Amino acid sequence: MSFNAGMVKFSVQTPDLGDAQDELPVRYEGDQLDIGFNASYLLEILRFMPTDEIRLTFRAPERAATLEPEQWNDPAQYLCLVMPLRLVD
């Protein structure tokens, strides 16, 4: 995932299936940041997320990130922690 002002770019590389890329508009504050996650882990978290919008919080590409539902009565009730993957150029 590559975050820029107002946009996140998803890039996926799978040896058996090939490569894919997509972009989505987001509310993002900060410098440009590239961070990698296991897509299966993210999909599993998002599958059970109780809202359509989420908050993804991270400080650096090598540190854990949290995902929580936006506009949910008790966001801490569904707080997920996901560890990033080391990106290879």
- Shape designation: globular
Helix-and-strand structural type: mainly beta
Cα end-to-end separation: 14 Å
- E-strand count: 7
Count of helical stretches: 1
Helix content: 10-25%
Question: What is the element string, with H for helices and E for strands?
Answer: EEEEHEEE
Biggest pleated sheet: 4 strands, antiparallel
Plain-language structure description:
The protein has 89 residues and is mostly beta strands. The protein is built from one helix and seven strands; from the N terminus they run ββββαβββ. A four-stranded antiparallel β-sheet has the order 3-2-1-4, with no helix packed on it. Strands 5-6-7 form a three-stranded antiparallel β-sheet, covered by helices on one side. The longest helix is centred in the middle third of the chain and has 9 residues, at 39-47. The protein is globular, with a radius of gyration of 13 Å. The model has no long low-confidence stretch (mean pLDDT 89).
